[in-house]
Amino acid sequence: MRWVTVAVALAAATAVAGAQDARLAVIRDDATRDAVRQFVEAARARGTPTDPLVARALEGVAFKADRKKIEQAMAALEKRLRRSRDLLGPRATVEEVTAAADALAADVPEGTIRDMKRIVPQRAITVELGVLTELVARGVTPKRAAVMVRELMARGATGAQLTELNAAVQQDVALGVKPVAALELRSRGVISLLPPPASVLSAQRP
């Protein structure tokens, strides 16, 4: 049975690599395309999720970045992806690792990501990380955004509630409300619907 499992895994990896190679065909410059392909293959051998790297390379091509800048951007992203994997653990999904890498790029502290995972170690925190990154992008400081997201997670806020919170904050900011004020206001509304942290933690214990 083991060889069957290995064969299936290899077939899946080959299919992913083939799909990525097809995407690289849009890179018209031969030298750039070859450099990107070599980087992606090396990253795959190191165990790094490669789909985000391909996406970053294509983004660079779309913005007409030169080969050196594309390679630098891919190297920086791979570093964040590998660090994200370390912070989240070996069972983290590609989507979760990518979201954590985006959070690191937004200057979210590594300790924040580690703490968020510790709150709900049994499931992915892709949505929570995405909301945190969006809040920072809207002007909330990484520290303040992290404190609020962690508190909501500790109280058992769902991904849907956090997504709605983020959308409401974005709407408020678009109307001229200061980001921190919008976050405080919308967070109080969500918190009013949630149990205290101790109740949530007790319910989560086996």
Q: Can you walk me through this structure?
A:
The chain is built from 11 helices and no strands. It has 206 residues and is mainly α. Helix 6 runs parallel beside helix 8 and helix 7 runs parallel beside helix 9 (159-174). The radius of gyration is 20 Å and the shape is elongated. Residues 4-15 have low confidence and may be disordered.
DSSP strand count? 0
- Number of helices, where a helix is a run of at least 4 consecutive DSSP H or I residues: 11
Overall structural class, as computed from helix and strand content, comes to mainly alpha
Average pLDDT score: 87
Strand content: under 5%
Helix content: over 70%
**Principal-axes shape call:** elongated
**End-to-end C-alpha gap:** 33 Å
Largest beta-sheet characterization: none
Low-confidence stretches: 4-15
- What is the CA-based Rg, rounded? 20 Å
Secondary-structure element sequence? HHHHHHHHHHH
Helix and strand arrangement:
Blueprint: H1 2-24, H2 30-45, H3 51-62, H4 67-88, H5 94-105, H6 110-119, H7 126-137, H8 142-154, H9 159-174, H10 179-191, H11 197-204
Helix pairs in contact: 2-4, 3-4, 4-5, 5-7, 6-8, 7-8, 7-9, 8-10, 9-10
